[in-house]
Amino acid sequence: MSSEYPPEPWHLAGQLHTSVFLVPFADVIAMLPGAPSQGLPPGTRLIRLGGKCIVGTAWVNYEPGGVLHYRELMSTVLVRSGWRLLPSITHIWVDSEASRAGGRALWGIPKHLADFYFSDDAASPGSTRTRVREFTAAEQSGAIASGTVRGRRRLPWRLPVRFRVVQRLNGRAKITPVRSRATLGLSSATFQADARGSLGFLAGRKPLLTLTMHDFDMTFGG
Fold it and tell me: What pLDDT band is residue 1 in, cutting at 50, 70 and 90?
């Protein structure tokens, strides 16, 4: 498995399922990698709603057609940088050495390697995808998380989805643009984090909202 990665921007395609949680501020601070002052990008602070923070998770399958093909699980927090509200990735796993190396070097995204099972991977070519999708992620030290996503409603149009991600890179805040188009859908999901793992702060919590980006085309980076 090669660790050579393409230059930015990365043009990617696939499926993304993201869920939103409200997590007590103290639990979020405790899970940040390193000291709190080192866990968030410089100049940012956590958004708080009644003592809770907004945490997102995402299962992503980057499919053939983009510059890289791999699977991913991530966790993010919503932060403020000046007047802007931005997601910042705190935990993330991929099954591609190239994605791991490129994410760290180009954008300060703290990617680690893991093994994944996505139920769509087992579908035969040309078959109708299952309505309920299953996901698992594990590293050598043990399980990370598992979950299911059931599609509910899907909009009939492809829409633009644009946002920016802020990370710590070489001691500074690195803001990276993300531009995509996708068919958006409302889904329901379960998420079971291993209580002993890096996402243990999500153990026993239920997502408030789950959205799916079907068949997205994405440009990550400038």
Answer: low
